[in-house]
Amino acid sequence: MLAAAVKQEKEELLEAEDLRDAWSLLVPEDRLESFRALERTDAEDLFLSLSSLDQAQLLLLIPIPERRSWLRLLAPDDAADLIQEVPHEDREPLLSLLDEPTRREVGSLLAYAEDDAGGLMNPRYARVRPEMTVDEAIIYLRRQAAERTESLPYAYVLDPDQKLLGVVSYRELFTAKAGQTVREVMRTELVTVPEVMDQEDVSRLFQTNRLLALPVVDAEGRMKGVVTIDDVVDVVREEATEDIQKIGGTSALDAPYLQVSLVGMIRKRAGWLSVLFVGESLTAVAMGHFEAEIAQAVVLALFVPLVISSGGNSGGQATTLVIRAMALGEVRLRDWWRVIRREFLAGLGLGSILAAIGVVRILTWEALFHSYGPHYFLVAVAVALSLVGVVLWGTIVGSMLPFALRRLGLDPASASAPFVATLVDVTGLVIYFTTARVVLAGKLL
Amino acid sequence: MLAAAVKQEKEELLEAEDLRDAWSLLVPEDRLESFRALERTDAEDLFLSLSSLDQAQLLLLIPIPERRSWLRLLAPDDAADLIQEVPHEDREPLLSLLDEPTRREVGSLLAYAEDDAGGLMNPRYARVRPEMTVDEAIIYLRRQAAERTESLPYAYVLDPDQKLLGVVSYRELFTAKAGQTVREVMRTELVTVPEVMDQEDVSRLFQTNRLLALPVVDAEGRMKGVVTIDDVVDVVREEATEDIQKIGGTSALDAPYLQVSLVGMIRKRAGWLSVLFVGESLTAVAMGHFEAEIAQAVVLALFVPLVISSGGNSGGQATTLVIRAMALGEVRLRDWWRVIRREFLAGLGLGSILAAIGVVRILTWEALFHSYGPHYFLVAVAVALSLVGVVLWGTIVGSMLPFALRRLGLDPASASAPFVATLVDVTGLVIYFTTARVVLAGKLL
Q1: What is the pLDDT of residue B148?
Q2: A355 in contact with B at a CB cutoff of 8 Å?
Q3: Is the pLDDT of residue B81 over 80?
Q4: From CA A342, how far away is CA B21, in angstroms rounded?
Q5: In what order do the strands lie in the sheet with A223-228?
Q6: Which of A21, A353, A427, B156 has the lowest tally of Cβ within 10 angstroms?
Q7: Is the ipTM of this complex over 0.90?
Q8: Which helix (H) or strand (E) holds B193?
Q9: Which 3 state secondary structure label does DSSP give A119?
Q10: CA distances from B248 to A214, A215, A319, B235, B320 (A)
Q11: How do B223-228 and B213-217 pair as beta strands?
Q12: Whole-angstrom Cα distance, residue A408 to residue A404?
């Protein structure tokens, strides 16, 4: 949430900033020690700037009697995020440190899924009544200002049932004539966020509307809180991290790299790696079918990695581009036909480029080293034709897999580059050896 | 920039929203036609919600006399972004449509690199003088409010030389006593952004400080404008897109997927793909060295794709995790030693897991199909040992390459998964065949 950042005297600031920079490198004990060596306001700024996970870890190291003032420093939504990061048995004791109204707010926030609008929102915001005059509203807001932790430039207009009627900016209150009522100056055409909306959709709503905050309402139109744009920055960053990690063929780490334990790290990576390995072991089966050809023309085996990796690389490009375009909302499910047409042509083009390089490469090597036997030219033709086929196939598989996954209700980002490469490797082998069989029939084979 | 989103009557809204959703799917002519069919306010909202590129394309389709009111709808920084998207010869005519002061502002914004703080900032913001009383400041702000396109909750306190002295929030003005001067209530400990700061650093500054806006100052401390957090959301999204595309082994597209022409798309992808292909063609050289072994024991060739792809996959995981951790500031250059120690152990663990699966796989296949000849057990041992070596090697290369690139001043995200896979494929072959030679000496070889 938006907390005023207070810059300290130059020297102290550096110290506190250094500590913030070094934070992820320190073991918990060193963190605590350096933290306690800071002046109180420096320490508070540092604490506020930490992630919820770091805050939680630090808080649990602090002696119990001192915890209260640190926890109470946080806005209710940030306190809820912190409490979600601690082990279950530590939650109740922490909740009991909060004052009664905040505890109720945090409790109801904890009931929301972390990834919903309800889990992002702050339940504290400035509210006014429609029948107030502008001057009354200003006086009323002045009184509320003391308790608010948010510094939003809007006040929300609610009826006695907490139903959201409109919104009014401080600027509009400033510029209104003194006798006007809030109802007369408020805007009633509102963009609202349902409390169960997924955080990715919330971030898209901010993208189209470009407001600093959006009100969260329940199914009856009652206002529950506000989501502010600074939380959206975190959402955008988090979602990108998850997608990148999936594209790289791991499960999402859900924590900073250096803070994941070795065992946790292996667990996050071994799953996909094993699946890919088992899938890739089909290449041994595929190659087994062509064992006779390999025995007869060992030269064919030399180009296996080159041909199949080209399919994997072009497929990896295609899947990555489509996954990102989907995440940004640039490509939707029903665009699959436009995508496949483009990728078909792109795949043909890219395959032809690689085929040309491949032919030049084989002919040059043959001229220099006589590496590939009497039928080198036919080998080059077989490699070139296979490259066009394999790259085209890789591109199509890579671009369509995210559509298939999304259609099945799965995360398109699971169509990771290595996953596509594995799929394409097996089929790539079949394309290569079948092509070679046709091209080299009667000569090498 | 923050523009008030005005929600229309239910039915019209849907129409405008549908059009916004379908925007990227329409050809330019259809866009123009549907756009002109909208009511003026709907059309304005749609226009404001488009990306700078879409705005520019649309504007150039609109008849020249009508362009002015659309261009003037934009805040100066957004107008500058739009003008950066049009061909050079169209820039001057568009600039001439702006009013004189805005033209000067936009002109000076165009002088900044798009990726600098100066290129992100809005030169319009609310300003007050330190010697004003709070009441004078409020009256003065009311007058300014009419011209502002920003709806920030802060006013900046400047001296006559435009030097930034402090900041005061509307809330602080509200809650101050009437007789106080601005100097008495303003905060003077400021976080400022140098105008030449890179946008990624700007986004990190927002992450630690959690403010809605930061003032941009030049080397002499003169205030040039404000960067608001909604621009930071775009920066975070853009930078993630660039990284994802690079990790996927393409150049950054710099435009939505469906808007890149086929030729442009091939150009963005062919470069890396060709480099990878040439690199990968070293696998043919490496395998050429082991041609005798392959001829003698064709069974060895069957496991080539399996073994080398495991190195590529584990290397791709490692590089992706490290690239993202670097981008998030979780891992820095000097952390390389901590990373390599972790990855060494992770690589050993992951390699052992795959080796175990590999042994089970080969023994099962042998029991079922008698596929691998009399020395199947030694083949399994050779494959298993190679897997440990190749996965370990892939993990280390993948995790260290981003460090090497950053050390050389290059973008770590260029250490794409396919790049690592290519590096590892060649060495993986050498590891595999060398291991096989040792294990199978006197038996198969």
Answers
A1: 53
A2: no
A3: yes
A4: 21
A5: A193-194, A213-217, A223-228
A6: A21
A7: no
A8: strand B193-194
A9: helix
A10: 35, 37, 8, 20, 10
A11: antiparallel
A12: 6
What's the token pair of residue B107? Answer: 């002109």
Instruction: Give dist(CA A263, CA B215) in Å, integer.
Output: 45
> What is the Cα–Cα distance from A443 to B401, expressed in whole angstroms?
44
Of A170, A321, A425, the CB nearest to B305: A425
Return the residue in A41, A242, A244 with the most chain B beta carbons within 10 A, the one to mutate for interface testing. A244
Contacting residues of A for B237, CB less than 8 Å apart: 207, 236, 240, 328
* Residues B297-314: b if buried by 16+ CB within 10 A, e if exposed: bbbbbbbbbbbbbbbbbb
> Which of B:403-422 have CB within 8 Å of A?
417-418, 421-422
Query: What is the average pLDDT across B294-323?
Result: 90
Q: Is the CB of A139 inside 8 Å of chain B's CB atoms?
A: no
CB B403 within 8 A of CB B339: yes
The stretches in chain A having pLDDT less than 50 are 1-14, 149
From chain B, pick out residues whose CB is under 8 angstroms from the CB of A215. Answer: none
Asked if residue B317 has pLDDT above 80, the reply is: yes
Structure-token pair, residue A185:
């100056």
Q: 0.90 cut: is pTM over it?
A: no
Closest residue by Cα to residue A209 from B5, B215, B393 = B5
| DSSP character at residue A225 | E
Q: Kindly give the interhelix angle for B417-440 and B304-327, rounded to the nearest 10 degrees.
A: 140
The closest of A431, A350, A345 to B273, measured between CA atoms, is A350
Range A233-238 contact pairs with CB under 8 angstroms and sequence separation of 24 or more? A233/B203, A233/B206, A233/B207, A233/B229, A233/B232, A233/B233, A233/B236, A235/A120, A235/A199, A235/A200, A235/A202, A235/A203, A236/A203, A236/B233, A236/B236, A236/B237, A236/B240, A237/B207, A237/B236, A237/B240, A237/B328
Show residues of chain B in contact with A189, CB under 8 Å. Answer: 6-8
Between chains, do A321 and B8 touch, taking CB under 8 Å as contact?
A: no
Structure tokens that stand for B100 in this block:
């004189």
How far are the Cα atoms of B287, B304, B310, B312 from residue A282, in angstroms, in the given order? 21, 12, 13, 17
Cβ-based contacts of B274 with chain A (< 8 Å) = 353-354, 357
State both tokens at A265.
């790290």
Contact B277 A141 (CB under 8 A): no
Chain A, 211 to 240: residues with Cβ < 8 Å from chain B are: 211-212, 229-230, 232-233, 236-237, 240
3-state secondary structure of B381: helix
pLDDT in tens, A260-271: 888 888 988 998
